[in-house]
Backbone:
């Protein structure tokens, strides 16, 4: 193969690679890809709310949110004895009948079931947004509002930060496992906002089209 043929072959391969990546970028930027992304975001948000909402009916999940609820000025009144929660905490998978009894008397499970019901409603409404813009608008609005409550736990819950047990890294900005879990709600906040904006635009477009058609019919009378 001559040098000229080699140069031509390399140029051809580079052009093919360029065209391939360009086609990928065009697909990513296409309206279809955008619609797929919005739908995937709705499904992802729905999965989180439905799955975690269902777990709220299980004692271990109800126990795990006790520190958040007990320290929250927005929720602590749902508990009978919020100030006493620390001595009654258990690890996931651990069963201590006396602590389970205290959590029952504290209304831990009653509140958790109520919260789980709300989360299930949000999840299913968001999922319904795949078929109904109006139901989806309500669901994503609630999904967007929820992280404002959960992220406030970073300010009110001591367990959201690594405790001072001897290591140099504790307190702010060293998030504990619970704190890291809460921080991830910023993703739900951003995702729900994108879906909310998209749904509002489509709904307004539909309403404007309907209004225009009605005006045209009235003008023809």
Residues:
């Amino acid at each position: 193969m001559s040098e000229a043929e080699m140069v031509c072959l390399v140029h051809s391969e580079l052009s093919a690679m360029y065209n391939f990546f360009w086609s990928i970028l065009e697909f990513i930027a296409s309206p279809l890809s955008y619609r797929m992304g919005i739908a995937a975001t709705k499904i992802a948000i729905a999965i989180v709310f439905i799955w975690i909402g269902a777990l709220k009916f299980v004692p271990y999940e109800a126990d795990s949110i006790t520190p958040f609820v007990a320290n929250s000025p927005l929720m602590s009144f749902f508990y009978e004895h919020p100030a006493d929660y620390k001595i009654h905490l258990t690890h996931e998978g651990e069963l201590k009948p006396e602590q389970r009894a205290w959590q029952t008397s504290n209304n831990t499970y009653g509140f958790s079931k109520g919260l789980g019901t709300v989360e299930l409603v949000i999840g299913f409404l968001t999922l319904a947004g795949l078929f109904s813009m109006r139901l989806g608008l309500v669901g994503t609005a609630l999904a967007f509002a929820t992280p404002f409550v959960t992220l406030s736990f970073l300010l009110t819950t001591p367990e959201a930060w690594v405790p001072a047990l001897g290591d140099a890294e504790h307190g702010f900005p060293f998030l504990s496992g619970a704190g890291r879990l809460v921080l991830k709600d910023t993703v739900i906040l951003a995702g729900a906002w994108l879906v909310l904006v998209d749904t509002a635009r489509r709904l307004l477009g539909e309403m404007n089209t309907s209004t225009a058609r009605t005006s045209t019919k009235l003008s023809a009378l």
Notes: Residues 185-220 form the longest helix (36 residues). The two ends are 79 Å apart (CA to CA). The mean pLDDT is 91.
